[in-house]
C-alpha cells in the first residue's frame, strides 16, 4: 500500500463492462514512496477529491479491497488520509 496525492482525474467513456460506473483518479505517490512510479491511475471507490492524500492498494489487494475481484484493476483508492503531517 502506498500514500499519494490525487492530482487529477481520468474520463473513459469506453472501458471494460466491469469498470462501468467507476471513477478513476491520477495519484502521485509521496516522495519517499515513489520508487520508479511518478503517477498511477487508481479506481476510486470512496469519493476522493483532487488535492487529497489517499491510501492506494495495488495488485490483487486492490481488486479485493474494492469488491471487483474479476475486473482489470491494479490500483484502488481505499482510504483518505485525515492528517498528512510529514508526508511531503
From TrEMBL:
Transmembrane segments: none annotated. PANTHER family: ETHANOLAMINE UTILIZATION PROTEIN EUTN (PTHR36539). This is EutN/CcmL family microcompartment protein. Keywords: Bacterial microcompartment, Carboxysome. Gene3D superfamilies: EutN/Ccml (2.40.50.220). It is found in: Carboxysome. It holds the Pfam family EutN_CcmL. It comes from the Bacteria.
Amino acid at each position: 500500500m502506498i500514500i499519494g496525492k490525487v492530482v487529477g482525474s481520468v474520463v473513459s467513456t469506453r472501458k471494460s463492462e466491469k469498470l462501468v460506473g467507476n471513477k478513476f483518479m491520477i495519484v502521485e505517490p509521496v516522495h519517499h514512496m515513489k520508487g520508479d512510479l511518478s503517477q498511477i491511475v487508481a479506481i476510486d471507490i470512496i469519493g476522493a477529491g483532487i488535492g487529497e492524500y489517499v491510501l492506494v492498494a495495488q495488485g490483487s489487494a486492490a481488486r479485493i479491497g474494492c469488491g471487483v475481484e474479476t475486473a482489470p484493476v491494479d490500483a484502488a483508492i481505499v482510504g483518505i488520509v485525515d492528517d498528512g503531517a510529514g508526508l511531503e
